[in-house]
Amino acid sequence: MWHDLMAVQIPIVEKVLRTVAVYVLILVLFRLAGKRGLAGLNTFDMVVVFLLSNVVQNAIIGNDNSLLGGAIGAVTLVAVNAGVTRWLARDPKAARLLEGRPTTVVKDGKLVEGALHSLALRPSELEHAIRIQNGDKVGDVARARLEPDGQLLVALKLGEQSATRADVEDLRRRLAEIERLLTAIAADRRPPG
């Protein structure tokens, strides 16, 4: 029993190469699928992700069902991912190549139809994301762009932005000044006593 758990049934180098190859393949597939897949997984996307892990399992493990073989594959995946992540953090050109560039999806309150089409993003999905970020409708947006990591960044038009604490404090200060001036004017208009 212990022998079956610990005996790697294919060469370790093959196990590592299989894992790296599948990692690269999945990376390329997600890059080709685009940012929209990362932005918000719908039911169909979830089905693909679940099935994808099952489909590539044998490509990674081969004929090896040992515990040690699985551990080697897991360590390889984590190590390769950590290496790629660190590489992308240091090399902007590589990040742009592997992750892509941001895509503007709303400009001056209007949808950029070509961008929505290429991202396979429905207007209703975009409107929902805008509401989550304090906008009421697409017309409220100065600019919205989908980042390479799938995150939607929304910049509302100035008139549609919420007041900040600094705005509220500025109004309080101005109101206090108005009250002081009104009190001074009222005091000047009082008849002498």
UniProtKB/TrEMBL annotation:
<keyword id="KW-0812">Transmembrane</keyword>
<protein>
    <submittedName>
        <fullName>DUF421 domain-containing protein</fullName>
    </submittedName>
</protein>
<dbReference type="InterPro" id="IPR007353">
    <property type="entry name" value="DUF421"/>
</dbReference>
<feature type="coiled-coil region">
    <location>
        <begin position="161"/>
        <end position="188"/>
    </location>
</feature>
<feature type="transmembrane region" description="Helical">
    <location>
        <begin position="41"/>
        <end position="61"/>
    </location>
</feature>
<feature type="domain" description="YetF C-terminal">
    <location>
        <begin position="93"/>
        <end position="159"/>
    </location>
</feature>
<comment type="similarity">
    <text>Belongs to the UPF0702 family.</text>
</comment>
<dbReference type="GO" id="GO:0005886">
    <property type="term" value="C:plasma membrane"/>
</dbReference>
<dbReference type="InterPro" id="IPR023090">
    <property type="entry name" value="UPF0702_alpha/beta_dom_sf"/>
</dbReference>
<dbReference type="Pfam" id="PF04239">
    <property type="entry name" value="DUF421"/>
</dbReference>
<keyword id="KW-0175">Coiled coil</keyword>
<keyword id="KW-1003">Cell membrane</keyword>
<keyword id="KW-1133">Transmembrane helix</keyword>
<feature type="transmembrane region" description="Helical">
    <location>
        <begin position="16"/>
        <end position="34"/>
    </location>
</feature>
<keyword id="KW-0472">Membrane</keyword>
<feature type="transmembrane region" description="Helical">
    <location>
        <begin position="67"/>
        <end position="89"/>
    </location>
</feature>
